[in-house]
Specification:
alpha/beta; globular
Length: 98
């Protein structure tokens, strides 16, 4: 990552971090930002399987456990899975997967 990239890096808002921290404390789950930057560029999606099961997907080999809850906070989403809490941009597309 270049010096310019570091200066222009988008960070989650204070408001979404506060909500995620509350959830992490009450649900005893870690907050992960694995999908944060790529959710702004369309490199990750919310994959929807038959039966409406949803998960964050980076590739065929890399995806999360099924999403149990989604929370909209401003222009961001808090995505809760069985094991973790992820923060992503509202810009993240949804797509049918198999």
């Amino acid at each position: 990552m270049t010096e310019v990239d570091k200066k222009e890096m988008l960070l989650p808002s204070v408001k979404v971090m506060q909500h995620a921290c509350r959830l992490a404390c009450t649900e005893d789950k870690p907050i992960l930002l694995d999908y944060w930057l790529e959710s702004h560029t369309g490199k990750v999606i919310i994959g929807v399987r038959d039966g409406d099961e949803k998960m964050l997907v980076r590739s065929q080999e890399e995806y999360t456990s099924p999403i149990s809850k989604l929370f909209k906070v401003g222009e961001e989403l808090i995505v809760m899975t069985e094991n973790s809490i992820y923060i992503v941009s509202m810009k993240i597309p949804s797509k049918k997967i198999s």
